[in-house]
Write a structure and sequence with these properties.
mainly alpha
Amino acid sequence: MQMPMHDHTKPQENAPNSTAKVREHELSSLIGYVLRYGVLISATLILIGYVLLVQTGLPTRHFEHFTGVATPGAYGLLDVFMRVRNRHSPDDIITLGLIALILTPVVRVGMSWVIFLYERDRLYAWLTATVFAILVFSLMGGSL
């Protein structure tokens, strides 16, 4: 006697595909959250720094003529971050907000790299790792 085939076998064949689509949507949402909150944190820090700058009554800067000031040892993002950490002026809080804004897309590339590794997509993992390495190298001042 032959067992009748039930119609429930068809959805099971589609289940892995739909699960992959759900996972892809979740990962895309996670990347979207990182970008959204990175910009929000950056804007908040810049705003706090600006409010503190106005409250302290520090002199207004005029940017008609740029006069660069050499900062010894501040060649990369890490050096700038360390300077901001040691001083707590409104300028430094604004700088920290700008650092957060710069790092937001770098974190997105790093997350994409992890996602491609998780999905075992070797080509995109290598390409993303290369882009991530170039970004990190350039943000560190271009020196090892």
